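Colleagues,

For the teaching module next term, I've prepared a clean inverse folding example: a structure given as tokens, and then the sequence designed for it. I'd like students to try predicting residues themselves before seeing the answer, so please don't circulate the second half yet.
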């Protein structure tokens, strides 16, 4: 079994809409001009780097934005251009919401369980309904179509529909999921959550909790995980109130290693105790206290939103955002992780600033999928990273993406046409078939 990181290709409408309450970066950068071409190229460079470390790498496509489907469903009629013009005039906020390139954060695209852990031996994937925020909820339908196209071989894969709507099953995907494992012990799944639909659990006071306990429980059932191997830790309410809107803002784990901030989970000490029992003495955890790493610094610089990657030699490397090197407390913490008795032997800092300014670090930009050789071979789409694919994608980005996008530019009816042309070409490049609604007959 090998881990493949499916990175989201940043879409042509990447912009700073200020759309996510509780996501401090999104709030503070809202209204600034964005640089879609640079953003997409930064993403591609990250893929090149991770692939260069010898780690499995693949890509997921952006979604059509502004979403004409969403605007039509809300009562806008006429030609595509008329819809954009009228929405710009009458409902600028809706146009902003339906223009977000948020599908780039593929950690939120779905939750995945590897075949080694499921009782029917299938890889299970459930697209996240993202129902907590409208600009993200409109991703689910297309994500489902894309996953069905890539993971369509029913001998190996089960792609579930998104969890049913209503806030009760609000699901934010793998941003709240961590799989840990040690040799000789079955994989353990942490399916975290921020609020409960029906139980009276104290939650955050300032910012919304996105994932529900009930959604996490449904995922464990759907994915046919052994109940003994699943834990449902609660995100600490004061962690969410500090800006940790997803678990992966304050915690990240890989195989036998977990690093977390003390504000990540309620009773983290109890959680680590259970993990030690389930995973044995090889399991390693490093906890940052608020004194060592103030939550403000952790949220601003995202040391926990790193990718922790197992390298071909068995050691691990961390791919962190540049901001974590520039913030002394975060930098010191990551240095400590390498210095201590952990599998992590190196930290690499990459520039994904265009995404970071919307609250998306290296870990947000990727969905982890564990595949055996046979499962890998059952995927026929051209989504696996190669230097040749990199070159075609970079050329595609340079051909179609604007350099700058200001908030006013979202009102340009030409943008929707440009995006459709680009995405239509991309589906042929990646051999995805007709996954977008505008491609349906
Ligand atoms: N932590 C993980 N895994 N993902 C990060 C998602 C960031 C995303 N930002 C946004 O949607 C901002 C869009 C804007 O404001 O334009 C969100 O808040 O859902």
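(Answer key — instructors only)
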């Amino acid at each position: 079994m090998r881990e493949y990181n499916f990175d989201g290709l940043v879409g042509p409408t990447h912009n700073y809409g200020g759309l996510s309450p509780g996501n401090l970066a999104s709030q503070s950068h809202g209204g600034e001009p964005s640089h879609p071409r640079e953003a997409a190229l930064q993403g591609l460079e990250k893929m090149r780097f991770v692939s260069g470390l010898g780690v499995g790498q693949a890509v997921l496509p952006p979604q059509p934005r502004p979403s004409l489907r969403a605007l039509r469903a809300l009562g806008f009629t006429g030609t595509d251009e008329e819809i954009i013009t009228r929405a710009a005039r009458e409902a600028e906020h809706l146009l902003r919401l339906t223009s977000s390139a948020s599908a780039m954060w593929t950690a939120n695209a779905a939750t995945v369980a590897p075949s080694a852990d499921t009782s029917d031996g299938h890889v299970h994937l459930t697209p996240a309904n993202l129902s907590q925020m409208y600009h993200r909820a409109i991703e689910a339908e297309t994500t489902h179509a894309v996953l069905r196209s890539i993971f369509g071989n029913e001998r190996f894969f089960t792609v579930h529909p998104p969890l049913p709507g209503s806030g009760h099953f609000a699901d934010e995907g793998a941003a709240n999921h961590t799989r840990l494992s040690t040799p000789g012990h079955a994989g353990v799944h942490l399916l975290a959550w921020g609020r409960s639909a029906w139980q009276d659990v104290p939650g955050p006071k300032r910012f919304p909790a996105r994932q529900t306990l009930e959604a996490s429980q449904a995922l464990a059932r759907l994915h046919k995980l052994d109940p003994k191997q699943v834990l449902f830790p609660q995100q600490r309410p004061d962690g969410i109130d500090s800006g940790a809107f997803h678990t992966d803002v304050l915690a990240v784990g890989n195989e036998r290693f977990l690093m977390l901030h003390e504000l990540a989970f309620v009773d983290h000490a109890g959680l680590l105790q259970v993990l030690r029992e389930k995973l044995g003495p090889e399991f390693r955890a490093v906890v940052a206290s608020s004194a060592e790493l103030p939550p403000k610094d952790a949220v601003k610089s995202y040391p926990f939103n790193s990718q922790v990657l197992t390298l071909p030699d068995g050691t691990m490397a961390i791919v962190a955002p540049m901001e974590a090197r520039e913030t002394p407390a975060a930098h010191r913490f990551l240095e400590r992780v390498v210095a201590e008795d952990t599998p992590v032997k190196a930290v690499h800092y990459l520039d994904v600033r265009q995404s970071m300014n919307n609250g998306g670090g290296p870990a947000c930009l990727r969905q982890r999928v564990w595949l055996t050789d046979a499962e890998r071979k059952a995927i026929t789409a051209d989504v696996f990273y190669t230097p040749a694919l990199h070159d075609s994608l970079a050329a595609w980005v340079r051909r179609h993406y604007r350099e700058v996008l200001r908030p006013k530019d979202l009102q340009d009816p030409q943008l929707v046409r440009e995006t459709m042309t680009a995405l239509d070409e991309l589906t042929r490049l990646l051999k995805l078939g007709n996954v977008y609604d505008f491609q349906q007959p």
